[in-house]
Each structure stands twice: as C-alpha cells, then as structure tokens.
Amino acid sequence: DGGITQSPKYLFRKEGQNVTLSCEQNLNHDAMYWYRQDPGQGLRLIYYSQIVNDFQKGDIAEGYSVSREKKESFPLTVTSAQKNPTAFYLCASTSYTGEPTGELFFGEGSRLTVL
Amino acid sequence: AQTVTQSQPEMSVQEAETVTLSCTYDTSENNYYLFWYKQPPSRQMILVIRQEAYKQQNATENRFSVNFQKAAKSFSLKISDSQLGDTAMYFCAFSGYGGSQGNLIFGKGTKLSVKP
Fold first, then answer.
1. In DSSP terms, which residues pair with A114 in a beta bridge?
2. Are B51 and B59 in contact (CB under 8 A)?
3. Which CA distances in Å does B13 have to A36, B8, B87, B88?
4. What is the four-CA torsion angle of A81, A70, A105, B90, rounded to 10 degrees?
5. B50 and A102 in contact by Cβ < 8 A?
6. What residues are paired with A59 via a beta bridge?
7. How far, in Å, CA of B27 to CA of B73, rounded?
8. What is the distance between the alpha carbons of residues B34 and B77, in angstroms, rounded to a whole number?
9. What is the pLDDT of residue A4?
10. Residue from the list A43, A96, A102 with its beta carbon closest to the beta carbon of B33
C-alpha cells in the first residue's frame, strides 16, 4: 500500500545530542513537509521541500536541518541547538501532478522526548 | 500573513446528535483551499473535507459538511449523526494556491468528545 512511513515512532534523547527522524514516501509525491505539534499549539511548519536537492525554511526552522537527496526521502535532524525539542513530529507530502488539491497526506508521526 | 483561529478548545456532543465546529481565517488572497483534518488518539492526521475558495457550493462528505462564508472568512464544520469514532482533535487549515500549495497553516484545534 502507498503511504508515508515515519521512524522511529518513539525516541528518547539526552540533552546535547543530535537525532534524525526518518520520513519515506512511496506515493511518488513531489513535495514533502515537516511539522511540529505541541499541546494546544496546532501544527507548525519546520521545513519543506518541493523538489529534490532543494528545501525551504518554515516558521520554526531554528535548531533543525533537513536534506532531500531522493524524491522518496526527507529526513529531519533535530540538533542540540533546538532549545525545546520535546514534541510530536509529523511528516507529510503532496503531489503537484494533475489537478491540484492542496491536500497533505501525513505519516503516523514520531514522538521525541528529551531527557 | 495568513492566520487560522479555532475559538472552541473543547466540545462534547451526545451520540447521534449534530455538532458544529467553528473556524475563522484571515487572508488577502482570493483563491485558496480550506481543510478540516481529524486527529484521533492514534495521532494519524486524516483529511475530513476540503473546500476550494472559488467554489460557492459548500463541500459535503457523508455526515460531514461545511458552511463556507467567504466574505466573513468563516469555515465551520458540521458533523451530523455523531458517532463514537468521531472523538478526536479537529484542525482547520488554510493553504494558498500555486507555490504555497501544501504549506498548510493550522488552527490550534478543537477537541471533540462524543458521549454514548
């Protein structure tokens, strides 16, 4: 089945460590996104990529980095510079082929806890 | 900048009854998309319904319908015949056209509880 796979589902990290969250999609979608979700805050955009080897900062990019070396993959690294990294992270994708719908398809999320 | 506001942090409804969730937004664009997403306890975000701003007809999907008032910048979601499985967080979201398509701006969500 086509979809978006995020791993790991749960991750614990010590302060000062970098951690990378994986996001893979087999939907042949063009664009991929990373959102952060905090209680009572809705979802906020971290980074997005509309094409391979290119990506753009979202509203809260500080302390995060991404890469887009393959169309299917968009990993997110949470660096030690991120002051409050404990959150739920959602990866999403969308297609620019055919009639545009604007709809995002989401993965199941990764829960990061900093100890 | 666009903003999305959901003024009801929590709501509850009895099973089989109807409930309406409110959403207002602010934008200077004329063409855009509006969405309602559902996030059940499993945390998977699921699209409930989508509306394109240039379409005057309100979108419907089975028990879910919207009341889209473009001039008032209002986009409410009505759930009819509520079911226990409708218990979830509901997020209203806005997306522009073209290059900003997919860059969704979300409201803070409404937690809906359906009671038996």
1. A13
2. yes
3. 29, 13, 9, 12
4. 0
5. yes
6. none
7. 8
8. 11
9. 96
10. A102
With tokens 């979202």, the residue in question is: A58
pLDDT at B99 over 70: no
Q: Map residue A15 onto helix, strand or coil.
A: coil
pLDDT in tens, B5-20: 999 999 999 999 999 9
Selecting from B9, B91, B101 the residue whose C-beta is nearest the C-beta of A43 gives B91
With b meaning 16 or more CB within 10 Å and e meaning fewer, what string describes A56-91? eebeebeebbbebeebbebbbebeeebeebebbbbb
Give one word for A111, left, alpha or beta, with left for phi > 0 and alpha for psi -120 to 50: beta
Largest Cα separation within chain A, whole Å, is 45
Question: Tell me, what amino acid is at B68?
Answer: F
Q: Is B33 on the interface with A (CB under 8 A)?
A: yes
